[in-house]
Design brief:
Layout (H helix, E strand, L loop, with lengths): L1 H60 L10 E3 L2 E9 L5 E9 L2 E9 L9 E3 L8 E2 L3 E2 L3 E3 L3 E4 L3 E2 L3 E3 L3 E3 L7 E2 L3 E3 L10 H7 L10 E5 L4 E6 L6 E4 H4 L6
Parallel strand pairs: 5-8, 6-9, 7-10, 8-11, 9-12, 10-13, 11-14
Antiparallel strand pairs: 1-2, 2-3, 3-4, 15-16, 16-17
């Protein structure tokens, strides 16, 4: 009886070991397939990112650049870039990377820099106007002259000026957490034809004062003229293409 039991025991363990070995083989294959899939997807994504960077650099150099990147070999894969024109000088970059049968895409919307990015802009800052201790500016700032500071005002966005700083006294210590750069000129535009043309499909207010409060939910409260009454509406209804 002991001999038969031993045989059954050996057969049982052998079957168990075969089952475990088969599972381990299956798990090893799955792990290898997952690793290969992840590797191929990562490489295809890196190719797409590289293609987008190449396109962005070319558009920065020349806004009229049109893509000549079509199924171009790169890092043992292929890259393709398509440039789509959008509204108001915007350009959409669609970059695609292919590697070993895996495809990844990156989309970037680019547009020219504009004055809307500045929290404060001045061609010349008035001599009696100073940023003082307690003042905080959260966005980019530019002055085509000197920035007047007194005490310890705080600037979170990058500050650029043409002629440096004008301190009220030598102990003034403004905080430039977004960086500071002097010797930069950002001239006001002299031709607003393009903007006025775009505003024909947006919102034009002529020969009158306007008050607008932009709200975080995408709506605005506005009134036109000192005797006007405030009205609430969505920004998309007030200026469909975003131009006021």
């Amino acid at each position: 009886m002991f001999g038969k039991a031993a045989i059954y025991l050996v057969l049982g363990f052998s079957g168990l070991f075969l089952l475990i070995a088969n599972n381990m083989f299956t798990y090893s294959n799955d792990a290898l397939e997952n690793y290969t899939k992840y590797y191929d997807e990562t490489i295809s994504n890196n190719i797409a990112i590289s293609a987008a960077n190449i396109a962005a650099n070319n558009l920065f150099i020349s806004s009229s650049w049109t893509s000549n990147i079509n199924n171009v070999s790169f890092q043992n894969g292929k890259m393709t870039v398509v440039i789509n024109d959008s509204s108001f000088n915007r350009k959409e970059i669609v970059a695609t990377g292919n590697y070993n049968g895996k495809e990844s895409s990156v989309r970037i919307m680019m547009q020219p820099s504009n004055f809307a990015k500045f929290a404060y802009y001045a061609n010349i800052m008035p001599g009696n106007l100073y940023y003082v201790t307690g003042d905080t500016v959260w966005g980019p700032t530019h002055i085509n002259g000197k920035l007047n500071v007194s005490g310890n005002p705080v600037f979170w966005g990058k500050v650029t000026t043409k002629s440096g700083l004008k301190k009220n006294n030598k102990n003034d210590n403004p905080k430039f957490y977004g960086g500071f750069e002097s010797g930069v000129t950002v001239d006001l535009p002299t031709n607003f034809t393009q903007l006025e043309t775009a505003a024909q499909s947006g919102k034009i207010i002529q020969n009158n004062d306007v008050w607008i409060t932009f709200k975080s939910d995408g709506t605005i409260s506005y009134k036109i003229g000192s005797s006007g009454t405030y009205k609430d509406t969505s920004l998309s209804a007030f200026a469909p293409n975003g131009i006021i």
